[in-house]
Design goal:
Layout: H1 13-26, H2 32-41, E1 43-44, E2 66-73, E3 92-100, E4 107-112, E5 116-120, E6 123-124, E7 130-131, E8 134-138, H3 141-159, E9 165-170, H4 175-180, E10 184-188, E11 192-194, E12 199-201, E13 204-208, H5 210-218, H6 226-245, H7 248-251, H8 254-266, E14 268-270, H9 275-284, E15 294-297, E16 300-302, E17 313-315, H10 319-327, E18 352-354, E19 357-362, H11 374-383
Parallel strand pairs: 1-14, 2-9, 4-15, 5-17
Antiparallel strand pairs: 2-3, 3-4, 5-8, 6-7, 9-14, 10-13, 11-12, 16-17, 16-19, 18-19
């Protein structure tokens, strides 16, 4: 992947999704019939029922920041999607809270693990069903019970941050997106031989298509970091997919781009009601350099073996600093902070275990670049099922 974009996993999922759809509508294939078809394909999960008051833009002042919830979901009820014997629980496997600055010049994202235990507020599902409040429940349970609007409400309870929009991308539907662009090249460091879930992928660099691509983003049993590793690989794959879409081989072939846009629109659920609305959102972010978008995982810690919550994660109090930065529209790190490897290659680590406590998830972006050794990068890559560039 060395020849591809150095923005790596810092090209957050929103940039991937919105830019793709914006390009598809604006590059000569946007006839009314095609545009209307994309609109009809878009899924609507309903409006957000806020726990936190939304600030209003000043009539003659700067805009407010944008806080957008990005969800990678995994519905398994489609034909051929139940590759590991699991039903269509529809949980959110990947969650990123993306903060776009009020000046629309910068953005950063914070990822929330699916296995983190949190409090869930009462919420209303799209069908009108009331989902009761609960304590110490897995993060992704909100989506499986009440969809994205329940997850948005849960995010507001956790962070105190008003969520402006949500955008969910169903991994079960992205096989067609991958095939539309002729596959995606991915480096797999060690063969994945997961008989329990019927996932088998050989080691090496491969052009993944269809079921193989779905297997790659689904697998979580082949690496020590399990769900955190899968989250990293999903971000890695989406970045590689975005690079392929933005390449001349796709942009100069309208039929390929049209196929991709069609498949993408079938995989999206959002509170934004139209392709035009997504294009407007993309326009809001036109001055944000994708390569400058920073990303980190919320500070978390595994419950120790023997604890009733063993196998789950707790979000650490240090997370409050992240939420306060977003509320104050401050950058992810202050200008005086030590230099960090913000231009790391695509499969460089964005979160790794702190050397002094292997149960705490931290980010090498919190550590001076020179203190992250090649050996630590290599171990981090192996723990997450990524090829090392150390």
């Amino acid at each position: 992947m060395g020849s591809e974009s150095r923005s790596g996993t810092r090209t957050v999922v929103l940039t991937v999704v919105v830019t793709m759809l914006f390009l598809a509508v604006g590059t000569g294939i946007g006839t009314w019939a095609f545009y209307d078809r994309l609109n009809r394909n878009l899924g609507s999960g309903g409006d957000i029922h806020h726990l936190v008051d939304e600030p209003e833009d000043a009539a003659d002042g700067p805009k407010q920041p944008l806080n957008i919830l990005i969800l990678g979901t995994d519905g398994r009820d489609c034909d051929g999607c139940s590759i590991d014997g699991e039903g269509g629980s529809g949980g959110s496997d990947s969650t990123i809270l993306l903060h776009v600055a009020a000046d629309r010049e910068s953005a950063y994202g914070v990822s929330i693990p699916r296995d983190a235990l949190v409090d869930r507020p009462e919420c209303t599902a799209p069908d009108g069903t009331t989902i009761p409040a609960a304590s110490d429940v897995m993060w992704n349970e909100a989506y499986s019970l009440g969809g994205p609007i329940c997850t948005a409400r849960q995010t507001e309870l956790l962070t105190g941050i008003p969520i402006d929009h949500y955008l969910a991308l169903d991994f079960a539907g992205f096989r067609g997106m991958v095939d539309a662009v002729g596959g995606v090249r991915i480096c797999i460091p060690e063969a994945i031989d997961d008989e329990e879930h019927n996932i088998f992928l050989p080691a090496g660099t491969h052009n993944l298509r269809g079921k193989q691509a779905l297997d790659y983003v689904r697998n979580r049993s082949s690496t020590p970091n399990a769900d955190l590793g899968r989250m990293r690989r999903q971000q890695y794959f989406l970045t590689a997919l975005a690079t392929k879409v933005l390449s001349a081989g796709t942009l100069t072939r309208p039929s390929r781009l049209a196929s991709f846009a069609t498949e993408l629109s079938r995989s999206i659920t959002t509170d934004i009601g139209s392709v035009a609305g997504l294009a407007d959102l993309a326009g809001e972010m036109r001055n944000v350099d994708p390569g400058s978008i920073e990303f980190e995982t919320v500070p978390n810690q595994a419950f120790p073996e023997g604890d009733p919550h063993w196998g789950r994660l707790r979000i650490l109090p240090e997370a409050d600093e992240l939420w306060q930065r977003m509320l104050a529209d401050r950058p992810l790190r202050d200008a005086a902070a030590p230099a960090s490897p913000t231009n790391a290659p695509t499969n460089a680590p964005t979160s790794t275990a702190a050397p002094t406590n292997p149960e705490v998830s931290a980010s090498p972006d919190d550590v001076p670049a020179e203190s992250v050794t090649p050996e630590e990068r290599e171990k981090d890559a192996a723990d997450n099922g990524l090829c090392s560039t150390a």
